[in-house]
Design a protein that fits this description.
The protein is 55% helix and 19% strand. The strands form four sheets. Strands 2-1-5-4-3 form a five-stranded antiparallel β-sheet, sandwiched between helices. The protein has a five-stranded antiparallel β-sheet with strand order 7-6-10-9-8. Strand 4 and strand 5 form a beta hairpin. Helix 3 packs antiparallel against helix 4 and helix 6 runs antiparallel to helix 7. It is elongated and about 170 Å long. The relative contact order is 0.04.
Length: 616
């Protein structure tokens, strides 16, 4: 057909409208056939002149009007853009018009009508088909009435009534059949449309191969993935375009599923492989190909369904992730800090070498062990609370100290910071943390703390720590309704030792006195150095004043024993003042002051003795 004429008849930008006009032209051909039949009927004398020419004029007019409606697009504003019902009603009117004048040939035109109904079965749904059928019965009834009134001669009305009844039955039968066919057609159309949309829009390429591995179908997405038109792929030989490195695996996989399909009739058979294939431009891309067997309803013959997916970006991403993880692991292995990962139960799932060295285990030994294995029960509870807080809040923990027990049973202090570890979906799956050895720092801190509360020379508590302990002793005595004693001790003759033997001798004497004082009391009591040659004893669990006297006499006797130093001897005495709680008060500072006052009393009365602040 000439392009200009074709453009005049069909629109160039609407494929659906082109299809509708094509169907209309096919229906117009039916009018032409009917016109030929009418012409023969007219020549044979079966149709009158006015009926013949009236029908021709109406047929031409109807088709011209319908073509104008289609070509201008007015039909697209209607519920049925194909105008099937309107075309059928127009044809029915034309047939009925001829039947009024057809005399003995009315049966032939009635048969033409039945053909029109058959056409409607495949184009109309049940509701519209019933409307058209009712319209037909009414128009045919109108023809019979017209014949009764104006042209009753030569008409067999019994036959007309019978034909009307038969037509009604045919209409009902066609309505049922047409409804069923229309439903099936709509379902098939929807299914095909869905499949078409899927295959046209998914990025994966779908292939169908027969048992000889000839491609019988390929989805349009092959153009995007491989650069080929579907028609080009259908002409390719089996395994065309597959790289040499993937060819052997592909052939073996396809051969395997074909053999399985021949022997395993009722089972689902599929295989998935990764393969490289050349695009039309010669570039090789990585793809994932899934082969599956599809069978007919009888499950006798089968075809191979293959779905190809481009995984080039995924492979690049996986390689980038692998390199990143490798770099990450390398960094972790070379940092001094320990790094670890544990699951929600606290079992180690990963650790670097630094972490393993801290525990004294190898990395292999550490994996699978629980963190409780390396610490005391008390510390394990503290660590659990830290981890649990991270799990509940999702916030990383600040550095907390963790006492660990190494494999060789030695203890080390570490400082740990912990972060919650989550899966890609955001679900908590464990913890990861960094640790560093702070044992040396901890020991220095402990030493500094000790020096702040203990005498450097004798390692006895200072007055600051003594007061803390005295405060607790007073509370204990009040709670247990017992007494406690505060003894203030000043050494007699210590100045002479310093003056005659020197300060080194004096320091030695002080250390010896400290040891002797500790030997005079229980572990629950306190001995403190509170001045140059002054000491304080806090004695708990005093039931009667005589208990304090026993301690004082023991101290005087032990301290006054000669102290050997550098070939000579040093001798010191001790003056002791005693204050009792609660007898002499329950205030800490007052008790110390009263014991000091009592000590000065004994100093004035002869030294190397003891005295209560209040006579007992």
């Amino acid at each position: 057909m000439n392009k200009s004429i074709k453009a005049l008849i069909f629109p160039t930008d609407d494929p659906k409208q082109v299809l509708r006009i094509s169907r209309f032209l096919m229906a117009s051909a039916a009018y032409f056939i009917c016109a030929v039949l009418c012409t023969f009927a007219y020549i044979a004398g079966f149709v009158t002149k006015e009926a013949y020419f009236g029908w021709l004029a109406a047929a031409v007019s109807i088709n011209i009007v319908l073509f104008v409606v289609f070509r201008t697009g007015l039909n697209q504003r209607m519920a049925d853009p194909s105008l099937t019902a309107l075309q059928m009603c127009s044809a029915i009117v034309m047939v009925m018009y001829v039947m009024m004048f057809a005399n003995e040939t009315r049966g032939v035109f009635l048969l033409i009508y039945v053909v029109i109904l058959l056409f409607g079965i495949f184009r109309l749904d049940t509701r519209r088909f019933l409307y058209v059928s009712i319209f037909t019965l009414l128009t045919y009834g109108g023809v019979i009435v017209q014949l009764h009134l104006y042209r009753p001669q030569g008409v067999n009305f019994s036959m007309e009534y019978l034909q009307w009844v038969v037509l009604a039955g045919v209409v009902i039968l066609f309505s049922v059949i047409g409804g069923h066919i229309s439903g099936l057609r709509n379902k098939i159309s929807k299914d095909r449309s869905t499949i078409q949309r899927l295959t046209d829009n998914i990025p994966d390429v779908i292939f169908v191969f027969d048992t000889n591995l000839n491609c019988t179908y390929v989805s349009p997405s092959v153009k995007i993935l491989l650069g080929y038109e579907p028609e080009e792929v259908l002409k390719q030989k089996p395994f065309d375009g597959i790289t040499a490195s993937s060819l052997d695996l592909t052939i073996r996989t396809v051969s395997e599923i074909i053999e399985l399909a021949k022997t395993q009739q009722g089972e689902d058979i599929s295989r998935t492989i990764e393969m490289k294939i050349y695009r039309k431009d010669g570039i090789a891309i990585c793809t994932e190909m899934k082969f599956a067997i599809i069978r007919d309803k009888q499950k006798k013959s089968f075809e191979i369904l293959a779905v190809m997916r481009d995984i080039s970006e995924r492979k690049k991403m996986m390689e980038a992730i692998r390199r990143g993880e490798e770099k990450y692991r390398t960094i972790l292995e070379h940092i001094q800090e320990g790094y670890f990962e544990v699951d929600l139960k606290g079992d180690f799932t990963f650790c670097n070498d630094s972490m393993a060295r801290l525990t004294g285990c190898t990395s292999e030994e550490l994996i699978g062990m629980n963190h409780k294995h390396f610490t005391t029960k008390e510390t394990a509870e503290k660590v659990f609370q830290e981890f649990n807080n991270v799990l509940k809040t999702g916030e990383p923990s600040r550095g907390f100290e963790w006492l660990i027990i190494r494999k060789d049973q030695t203890q080390r202090y570490i400082e740990a910071s912990v972060t919650l570890k989550k899966s890609s979906s955001g679900k908590p799956i464990g913890f990861e943390g960094m640790v560093r050895d702070v044992t040396e720092r901890k020991l220095i801190e402990e030493q500094i703390k000790h020096l702040a509360t203990h005498d450097v020379l004798t390692d006895l508590p200072t007055m600051r720590l003594a007061k803390d302990r005295l405060k607790m002793s007073i509370s204990l005595a009040q709670r247990n309704k017992t007494m406690m004693a505060v003894m203030f001790i000043d050494l007699d003759g210590f100045k002479e030792v310093n003056d005659t033997l020197g300060h080194d001798a004096g320091d030695y004497v002080l250390k010896q006195v400290a040891d002797r004082l500790l030997s005079c009391v229980r572990a629950s009591d306190t001995v403190a150095r509170v001045g140059g040659d002054e000491f304080l004893i806090i004695a708990n669990g005093i039931h009667v004043p005589e208990n304090a006297e026993q301690i004082a006499r023991k101290v005087i006797g032990v301290v006054s024993q000669p102290i050997n130093y550098d070939g000579g001897q040093a001798v010191v005495g001790s003056s002791i003042g005693i204050a009792l709680c609660p007898n002499d008060g329950q205030d800490m500072d007052q008790l110390i002051k009263k014991a000091d006052d009592a000590m000065y009393k004994i100093k004035k009365t002869g030294k190397n003795g003891y005295c209560f602040i209040n006579p007992q």
